[in-house]
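Lecture 7 notes: from sequence to structure.
We start with the chain below.
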Amino acid sequence: MHQAEHSLDEALDPERQVVDYLMAHPDFLARHPEVLSAIEVPHGIQGAVSLIEYQVRLLRRQLATERNRLVHLIARARRNEALAIRLHGLILQLMVVKDPEHLCHLLRETLLREFHAEALAFKLFARATLESRPHDPVANAFADFIDRRNALCGPLSSERAVALFGEGGTGIHSAAIVPIHADGQSGIIAIGSADATRFSPEMGTDFLNRLGEIISQKLRTVHLGNCEPH
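Predicted structure tokens for the same chain:
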């Protein structure tokens, strides 16, 4: 009776069932290699690793790397899709803006929210004024950048922060600078953050570049006027 109960216990043991199944189907791992890459197969001799075990470990590491890369690509694609949707929404709103005050309010509210920023500044200069090299601190500090076509992100010196954002610039430590080129005017839009790592040189600028082009186009029909730093 005791022997029969022991046999029944073994028969109902999940591990025993797995062993029995594998013994009855020796080609199981060949038909399901994904199982082999997911289980631990230790070698019987301490300090030594069989060729098969080494290959399995290598395969597992490669698989983990590819999975991480895929997760990263999917996350980036989702972020880009979300940015594209928000950019499209901004374009639709810009299409109906007809006065400088509304334009200033829309850009300030949207950019501060989308970039989780604390400061925003618009600096536009007539090209003739830029060519004369005025004593404007912003024009002097960003004269070389204004002629660029691509946005720039990174840490911001205290001098440039104050020049851009006024007294509130003392607490701004990084920024995204977007060049603006409209009819007869050139300048920048500066988006500032108190976080020194919020805007870094490694950040992609495709979204910012498109944003600059869209705003530049809008400024051909609606002048920004006086839009003081936030």
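Points to note: The chain has eleven helices and four strands. Residues 1-6 have pLDDT under 50 and may be disordered.
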